[in-house]
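Fold this sequence, please.
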Amino acid sequence: MDKDALREYLNTRRQGWPYEDSYHVDHMDGHRFVARIGDELAGLSYAEVNADSTEAVMKMNLKSQYAEYGIGTELLNLLMDDLQQSGFETIRYEIPPERYAFQIYKNLGFSVERRDEETVRFIWRRHK
């Protein structure tokens, strides 16, 4: 999803959203992004990386009351951009099947690597 499309999507999701004036995302050290509403932590995205590897594993947590407003999508998009700019060749992301939101991950360039009863594992590979 390009930056303009993401911005338009987020603006649409947040019309009439009561948190707009107090919402912000910070880029922390390393590959970590934190979303806050006022002083409260709303969500975070981060990557587990090995210094000797070209692969990263993305993780994300979002408080349920802030779901459906595009915060998770924004956190994932920022982390993906950060990892791509850092030169990672492969990025994986694993979630429980009941949280399966294929279109969001497809828009970020992921494909399904494996799916079973416990997890859906997505993979993104840099095109050469």
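The chain has three helices and seven strands. The helical segments are 3-13, 71-85, 102-107.
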